[in-house]
Hints:
This protein is α+β, with helices and mostly antiparallel strands. The chain has 2 domains: 6-72 and 177-276, Efflux pump adaptor protein, beta barrel domain (Elongation Factor Tu (Ef-tu), domain 3, Beta Barrel); 79-165. It has helices spanning 6-19, 79-93, 96-120, 126-165, and strands at 24-25, 34-49, 54-59, 66-67, 72-76, 168-170, 175-180, 187-188, 192-209, 221-226, 235-242, 252-259, 271-276. The chain has a 6-stranded antiparallel β-barrel. A 4-stranded antiparallel beta sheet has the order 6-5-3-8, with no helix packed on it. Helix 3 packs antiparallel against helix 4 (126-165). The two termini are 29 Å apart.
Amino acid sequence: MSCKSPANIGFWSLIALLGGGSPVLWAQQAEPGLALNCRIEPYMQVEVSSAVEGVIAQMLVDKNAVVKKGDTLAKLESGLEAATVDLRRVQASLESDISSQQLALEFAERALKRVEDLYGKKVASFAELDKAKTEHALALQRLEQAKDRQRQAELELKRAVENLKRYTIVSPVDAVVTERYKQPGEHVDNEPVMRLVQLDPLRVEVYAPANLYGQIREGSSARVKPDINSGQEFYTAQVSLVDRVIDGPSNTFGVRLTIPNPEQALPSGQRCTVRFASVQATP
């Protein structure tokens, strides 16, 4: 996945024009390494939508709410689906069909045993024995059919439960709600209900000059200085992605770093400076 976007490329192109052809921020001589302009972004942005078409019954979170993965965000009207689950649950719990067929099989087994005894004493005919064996086999088959119907009812219950779950919208990640697009009573069909952003960790997007390609590697560390001081001057970040393709028009390549943000004290969306201590600028 590339780190570039048209907006970011335009931003860095302006920096390059103003700074002499490179998005490099030259720091004081006392500080070793290379400093580059960067931007802090949410790690992930999700436009949450519904799996089914329907009408919003409840919106359980509002803007700025902090949610955990699996938390319920909203519910759609699902009275019919809930009733279907209740019906399937009753059908899956019924034992009367199997019990009656079990009794019929036990009766057929006793009848077969009596006829076999009589046939052994030359009192019953072969036709009577054959009839008793057939009735026993049919009773056994009807019992298996009753068990199959119960297994089918259990599967129907499972399907109904899964279908009912689709009317509940849950958070796919630990995140913060940044936008809420729908209200109770509104119709939903293939459009997002709300926007979530994951703020732990954070992404740092950097565009480095092409002549530095190969010096910045995945897994290496760097120091990030945000424009807004939110408790500490520098944050340690780790390179998680380096573009494999250099962008020709800007003559840069994208680098992505990751910053842990467990307390969510560092706001995203701000500009920053990232310093790679082991990287030296080349002419």
